[in-house]
Design brief:
Layout (H helix, E strand, L loop, with lengths): L25 H7 L5 H10 L9 H14 L12 H9 L3 H11 L3 H23 L2 H16 L3 E2 L2 E2 L12 H20 L18 H17 L3 H12 L4 H8 L3 H25 L4 H7 L11 H5 L21
Antiparallel strand pairs: 1-2
Helix pairs in contact: 1-3, 5-6, 6-7, 6-8, 9-12, 11-12
C-alpha cells in the first residue's frame, strides 16, 4: 500500500492554477495527451515541483507520456483507458519523485543536489544493511551513485537507470530494490563463497532501521484504525482488491471523478496524520519524513485485517445502473 509512504502527496488534489499558464510548449504537450486538457498537465507539473528540479513542462510531459504508454496507464494490455482514467493514473503517481529522478537522469545539477541531500544517507545505511559490511556497503553505495549519475556508457551514450523509474512506487523503495539487485549481480559475477561476515568488520552503528519501522507500523495501525468505515472501504477496494475507479464508482453510485478526488484527499489526510503520529512517538519531523520513505515490503502489517471492518452498505447496497453525473 504505497500510498502510505508517498512523499509527493502533500499537494492538494485541486490546485489553484496561476492565471497565466505556460503557452510556449502547449502545441507539443497537446500532441502527447490527446483528450486531456493542458491545464491538467500544468497542474501535474506544478504538483511535482518539476521546475525546481530543472524540468520544463514539455520535458515533464514527455516523462509522463512515456510512463503512461509503457504501462497502459495502469490498465491491462489492449484496454483503451478513457481520459478520466488517464488523469487519475497520473495523479496517483509519486510526481515529485518522478520529476526528481528524471531530472537527475538528464544531468540537472539542481536535481542532483536535492537527490543527494534527501537520499544519500539512507542509501548508504541500506547498503551497510544489505552487505553487513562497512567497506562492502560503501563500495556498493558508491557504485550505485556512479551508475545513477550515468558514468557507465551504453551504446556510446551515458545513461542513468533513473530514467526507468516510473513513479508508481516510492523512489526510496526503488533505490533499495536496485541496491539489492546490484549486490546479487556482483555475487554472481565474482562467485564469492566466503561469508560476508568474515570479509570485513561490521558496519558502523546507526539508528536501527527496524526501530523506525516498528514506530511506522504502530503509526499506520493507529492512523487506519481512526478513519471512517467508508474511507477504509475505499482504501481496501482500490489498493488491496485492485478495483478500478469506475468499478468503485458504480458500486457506490457516484461519479468516477468523485472517487478519484476522494482518494486523493484521503491520501493527503493520511500522510498528515501519519506524520503527527510518528512525531508523537518521539521522532523529529525530519526523521518522521524519512520513515515515510521506507519500503512498504519491509513493514510487517496486515492491512487487510485493519480494513476488513468496512462495509459497502455504508454508502449504498445497490450498484448504479449508470455512472452519475459529476458534481462540480
Amino acid at each position: 500500500m504505497l500510498i502510505l509512504v508517498d512523499r509527493s502527496s502533500s499537494k492538494p488534489a485541486d490546485l489553484a492554477l496561476p492565471a497565466e499558464q505556460p503557452s510556449e510548449a502547449a502545441p507539443a504537450v497537446a500532441l502527447l495527451f490527446p483528450g486531456l486538457p493542458l491545464s491538467l498537465i500544468h497542474e501535474l507539473w506544478c504538483a511535482a515541483e518539476a521546475e525546481t528540479c530543472g524540468l520544463s513542462m514539455e520535458e515533464f510531459s514527455l516523462v509522463l507520456s512515456g510512463v503512461g504508454e509503457r504501462v497502459n496507464f495502469g490498465h491491462p494490455p489492449g484496454a483503451n483507458p478513457e481520459p478520466a482514467q488517464k488523469a487519475a493514473f497520473f495523479r496517483a503517481l509519486h510526481l515529485a519523485e518522478l520529476a526528481l529522478a528524471h531530472a537527475c537522469a538528464l544531468g540537472r545539477e539542481a536535481a542532483w543536489q536535492i537527490f543527494l541531500s534527501r537520499y544519500r544517507a539512507s542509501l548508504t545505511q541500506a547498503a551497510y544493511s544489505i552487505t553487513g559490511s562497512a567497506t562492502l556497503g560503501q563500495d556498493l553505495a558508491d557504485s550505485l551513485y556512479a551508475e545513477l549519475y550515468g558514468l557507465r556508457e551504453t551504446g556510446g551514450e551515458r545513461r542513468s537507470p533513473l530514467a526507468s523509474y516510473s513513479g508508481r512506487g516510492s523512489l526510496l523503495g526503488w533505490l533499495r530494490t536496485t541496491l539489492v539487485q546490484r549486490f546479487r549481480d556482483h555475487h554472481r559475477r565474482t562467485h564469492r563463497e566466503t561469508p560476508l561476515d568474515d570479509l570485513d568488520s561490521p558496519a558502523p552503528a546507526a539508528t536501527p532501521i527496524s526501530a523506525d519501522l516498528r514506530l511506522l507500523t504502530t503509526a499506520i495501525s493507529k492512523t487506519l484504525s481512526g478513519i471512517a468505515a467508508e474511507d477504509r472501504f475505499l482504501l481496501a477496494a482500490y489498493y488491496l482488491d485492485r478495483q478500478t475507479l469506475l468499478q468503485i464508482a458504480r458500486t457506490l453510485a457516484v461519479h468516477e471523478a468523485t472517487i478519484s478526488r476522494r482518494l486523493k484527499r484521503l491520501a493527503d489526510e493520511l500522510r498528515k496524520k501519519l506524520l503527527e503520529n510518528l512525531m508523537m512517538s518521539g521522532l523529529g519531523k525530519a526523521a518522521a519524513e524519512e520513515a515515510l520513505g521506507a519500503d512498504p515490503r519491509d513493514i510487517e502489517i496486515n492491512l487487510r485485517k485493519l480494513l476488513q471492518t468496512s462495509q459497502t452498505s455504508t454508502f449504498s447496497n445497490q450498484a448504479a445502473p449508470a455512472v452519475a453525473s459529476d458534481p462540480a
